Amino acid sequence: MGTLSQVLSSQEVAKNEAVQVLTFWMHGEMFAVGILHVKEIIEYGQVTEIPLMPAFIRGVINLRGSVVPVIDLGARFGHERQQIGKRSCIVIVELKSEDGRHDMGMVVDSVSEVLDVPAADIEPPPAFGSKIRADFIHGMSKINGGFVILLNIDRVLSIDEIATLLTAREQGQSLETEVREKMA
Fold first, then answer.
1. Which residues, at least 6 apart from 160, have a Cβ–Cβ distance to it below 8 Å?
2. Dihedral angle sign, alpha carbons of residues 97, 159, 111, 66
3. Which domains can be identified in the chain, with CATH numbers?
């Protein structure tokens, strides 16, 4: 009995906790990612395009000596590539994979704010009716009278899935080799 009450207590605590998220706009919709994934937000600029990449890969940036791939989230979700505006920026996120941790940039229309979302207010992903794949959605929450899609950033920017897409192209060079040649 004691074990069951401990499990229920920990579940109740989890429901009462808040999740910190960074909210941003893309194609007229508000999205959010867990703040623990976000390393920094930088101004859009100096993205080096790489030929023969999928449309959702904008290119790479040099971030303090490290080559960081930049993904166009709009294109990743099946929209046209985002138009870069005055408030467009790149959100640098850290992803975990079997190879360790990797930084990746996401182009967004604008960053909104950091919010505390009560875990109890996060609904599971819808089974249908969303413009993006359901496995990309961690959950949904109502914020300021509208729904915010909380992204499962590890799925959206899955290094394994992106690598599979990249190996499907005809050219046999790796992304890192292409980047080094381009930036040399």
1. 97, 98
2. positive
3. 18-183 (2.40.50.180)
**Arithmetic mean of pLDDT over the chain:** 75
Tokens of 172: 């046999």
Closest CA to 124 of 113, 114, 135, 115: 135
Write the DSSP string, the chain: -HHHHHHHHHHHHHHHSEEEEEEEEETTEEEEEEGGGEEEEEES--PBP-TT--TTEEEEEEETTEEEEEEEHHHHTTSPPPPP-TT-EEEEEEEEETTEEEEEEEEESEEEEEEEEEGGGPBPPPSS--SS-GGGEEEEEEETTEEEEEE-HHHHT-HHHHHHHHHTSS----HHHHHHHHH-
Give the global pTM. 0.72
Dist CA 59 CA 55 (whole Å): 10
* pLDDT tens sequence across 44-79: 988 999 887 878 888 899 998 888 999 888 887 777
Type of residue found at 23: T
